[in-house]
Amino acid sequence: MNAEGRIAKAFAKANAEGRGAFVAYITMGCPDMEKSEAAVDALVAGGADAIELGVPFSDPFADGATIRTAAYKALENGTTLDDVLAAAKRLRKRHPETGFVLFSYYNVIYAKGLEKFADEAEASGIDAVLCVDLPLEEREELLRVLRPHGISYVPLIAPNTPLERVKRCAEGLENTFLYAITVKGVTGARAELPADLVARLDEIRNATHLPVAAGFGISTAAQAAEVSAHADGFVVGSALVERLLKEGAIEGPLLA
Question: For the chain, what is the domain count?
């Protein structure tokens, strides 16, 4: 199966089963690469439909304390973009149908060289790239090298992004999803989600042809079910990374 179909098929399968697609985030290299790879294996076995493979970065300004701590731990271990791509290649062999999103800040990718990155990302089985700090107006620089390699892109939609801009973010993209940020601020598990989230998710879904996955702050099965009633999927990151930091593994049910 090529990169053109995996993410789209994951959302279509979840929809056919009457549920939201489960997108899971892991900071690769934390607590070490072997354990983060094992965590991906556990997530796939536990029912995750797609995995965001987080590349550690020294200034993860969009992330809360948990993922920042994980990023610093991974960097202390010497984890690089090349290491994450190598891990993705190993994981792809074990999970040929799971959607893999490379989650990174743009500087890491740019420093490697865009053409070289696209070549190696394709060889590693990456389906899409999410760059936290790459604005809509600048993303074509990356997209034009990703497209020939069959790699898509995941746009981030902020709580205050105007709907016309949401439509522009989705233009020209297929086999991916819109990542709708549920809260203002950084990543991190939260006890409650915003009261106006339901209406916001409905607006975004009505504005685009792409599936919408809601993320930032989702940590429980109840929250996942709440957003899945108004989105095509949900993203869980900090709650999973916290378990890795504390326990060194992900075992048992993925969501409480």
Answer: 1
